[in-house]
Amino acid sequence: MVDEEIDQRPPLSEVRKAYEDERFFQDDRAAAEYAYALAVRLREIGLLSEARHFAKECLELIESLPANSLEDVVSSRQTVGGVPLPDHFHDGVVRSRLADLLDAA
Is pLDDT at 3 greater than 50 in this prediction? Predict the structure, then answer.
């Protein structure tokens, strides 16, 4: 019998709630991180329309943040919503990692 990998990540509903909370409290960096996590996870399960929505949200949020120094873009967390964050989280990285979602019509 082959051991199945058990998804230890938080449910998508919790990640969505965290995203909404961060938007409400206007923490744009945290909201961008959660939007990134949602885009990645929704893409994994084939919910591409929703994934595109969160990819666009992520890019809009991250573009609104300062990115003038390394300190501005270094990730303070390793993972968000069960998704590893890039070491440097800025619009160029988001465009690169979510290109398939952002380029889709």
Answer: no
What letter represents residue 15's amino acid? V
Residue 62 near residue 30 (C-beta atoms within 8 A): no
Rounded to 5 degrees, φ, ψ at 84 are: -65, 135
Q: What are phi and psi of 53, to 5 degrees?
A: -55, -50
**Would you give the distance in Å from CA 99 to the centre of its chain?**
13
CA distances from 50 to 6, 25, 43, 63, 100 (A): 24, 22, 8, 20, 13
Residue 56: in which H helix or E strand, if any?
helix 48-63
- Residue 13 one-letter amino acid: S
pTM, two decimal places: 0.91
Q: What is the largest CA-CA distance in the chain?
A: 53
Beta bridge partner(s), residue 74: 88
